[in-house]
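Why Biotin transporter? Reviewers of the renewal asked for a concrete example.
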Amino acid sequence: MNNRDLVYIALFAALTIVFGLIPAIPLSFIPVPITARSLGVMLSGSLLGAKRGGLAMMLFLLLIAIGIPQASGGSGLAVFLGPRGGFLLGFPLGAFTIGWLTERFWRQLSLSNAMLANAIGGIAVVYAIGLPWLAVLAGRETALSAVAFLPGDLIKVGIASLVAVIVKRSYPLISAR
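Here is what the prediction returned.
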């Protein structure tokens, strides 16, 4: 790792914190609000690759754990024990998966390939960790109602994928390693 890698990791962890400052949309039927933070996960994986994207999200979690304030969801270790905890813990693996897939597609990265990578890592992987956690804490029916997140997450998949394709065209070396 060089200084550039460390700067990218810190930048994308900070970007994810900033996305957390966008007002959350609370839903009356589920204790987890809709936030923009998963866009940070998708952008980290898409633009930084597997290793740096996963590390950026691990740094993000470390910052939450030590008390960096988050407008939506609080901070400190207690956040990880609440209904949002599983989704947060899924962020590093989600970013890593997106990055790994994006690295495989990099030479022929298209909008559809980028969308596939972001949907698998940013939705499927994060939900695979977050939904069982939510089901344990809030009940199976509540966890099943998390399908309300899908429209917003699909919009985030589109945004992150479009950004990844544009960045690849203008700065092709950012994720090529």
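The first strand starts at residue 25 and ends at 27. This is the kind of structural detail the renewal will allow us to pursue systematically.
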